[in-house]
Design goal:
Number of helices: 4
CATH superfamily: Leucine-rich Repeat Variant
Number of strands: 0
Shape: globular
Structural class: mainly alpha
CATH topology: Leucine-rich Repeat Variant
Radius of gyration: 12 Å
Strand content: under 5%
Order of helices and strands: HHHH
Distance between the termini: 28 Å
Amino acid sequence: MKKLVEYHISRLKDKNPAIRLVAIQELELLADMESLEVLQDVFNNDPDEEVRRVAQQAGRTIFLKHRANTESESS
Protein backbone atom coordinates (compact mmCIF):
# COMPACT_ATOMS: atom_id res chain seq x y z
CA MET A 1 0.00 0.00 0.00
CA LYS A 2 2.97 2.32 0.63
CA LYS A 3 3.82 2.52 -3.07
CA LEU A 4 0.21 3.38 -3.87
CA VAL A 5 0.22 6.21 -1.34
CA GLU A 6 3.53 7.50 -2.75
CA TYR A 7 2.12 7.36 -6.28
CA HIS A 8 -0.88 9.50 -5.37
CA ILE A 9 1.27 11.91 -3.38
CA SER A 10 3.46 12.38 -6.47
CA ARG A 11 0.33 13.18 -8.51
CA LEU A 12 -0.37 16.15 -6.21
CA LYS A 13 2.34 18.02 -8.12
CA ASP A 14 0.57 17.64 -11.47
CA LYS A 15 -0.26 20.88 -13.27
CA ASN A 16 -3.83 19.72 -13.91
CA PRO A 17 -6.12 20.45 -10.93
CA ALA A 18 -8.44 17.57 -11.93
CA ILE A 19 -5.57 15.09 -11.51
CA ARG A 20 -4.69 16.59 -8.14
CA LEU A 21 -8.33 16.26 -7.05
CA VAL A 22 -8.43 12.58 -7.99
CA ALA A 23 -5.14 11.98 -6.15
CA ILE A 24 -6.55 13.61 -3.01
CA GLN A 25 -9.70 11.48 -3.20
CA GLU A 26 -7.60 8.33 -3.55
CA LEU A 27 -5.46 9.33 -0.56
CA GLU A 28 -8.63 9.88 1.43
CA LEU A 29 -9.81 6.36 0.58
CA LEU A 30 -6.44 4.86 1.52
CA ALA A 31 -6.56 6.78 4.82
CA ASP A 32 -2.80 6.62 5.40
CA MET A 33 -1.69 8.89 8.25
CA GLU A 34 1.46 9.86 6.35
CA SER A 35 -0.80 11.64 3.85
CA LEU A 36 -1.86 14.21 6.44
CA GLU A 37 1.26 16.34 6.25
CA VAL A 38 1.17 16.37 2.45
CA LEU A 39 -2.53 17.22 2.40
CA GLN A 40 -1.90 20.08 4.82
CA ASP A 41 0.77 21.39 2.46
CA VAL A 42 -1.69 21.21 -0.45
CA PHE A 43 -4.30 23.00 1.65
CA ASN A 44 -1.83 25.77 2.51
CA ASN A 45 -0.20 26.21 -0.90
CA ASP A 46 -2.24 24.92 -3.85
CA PRO A 47 -3.28 27.71 -6.25
CA ASP A 48 -6.69 26.10 -6.89
CA GLU A 49 -9.41 26.84 -4.32
CA GLU A 50 -11.31 23.59 -4.97
CA VAL A 51 -8.14 21.52 -4.58
CA ARG A 52 -7.43 23.24 -1.25
CA ARG A 53 -10.98 22.61 -0.04
CA VAL A 54 -10.89 18.91 -0.97
CA ALA A 55 -7.46 18.51 0.63
CA GLN A 56 -8.78 19.96 3.86
CA GLN A 57 -11.80 17.65 3.79
CA ALA A 58 -9.66 14.59 3.05
CA GLY A 59 -7.25 15.44 5.86
CA ARG A 60 -10.12 15.81 8.30
CA THR A 61 -11.63 12.49 7.20
CA ILE A 62 -8.31 10.63 7.60
CA PHE A 63 -7.67 12.20 11.00
CA LEU A 64 -11.14 11.37 12.32
CA LYS A 65 -10.99 7.83 10.95
CA HIS A 66 -7.71 7.17 12.74
CA ARG A 67 -8.91 8.81 15.94
CA ALA A 68 -12.02 6.60 15.92
CA ASN A 69 -9.87 3.50 15.34
CA THR A 70 -7.54 4.47 18.19
CA GLU A 71 -10.45 5.05 20.56
CA SER A 72 -12.09 1.74 19.69
CA GLU A 73 -8.80 -0.14 20.21
CA SER A 74 -8.32 1.40 23.65
CA SER A 75 -11.80 0.53 24.93
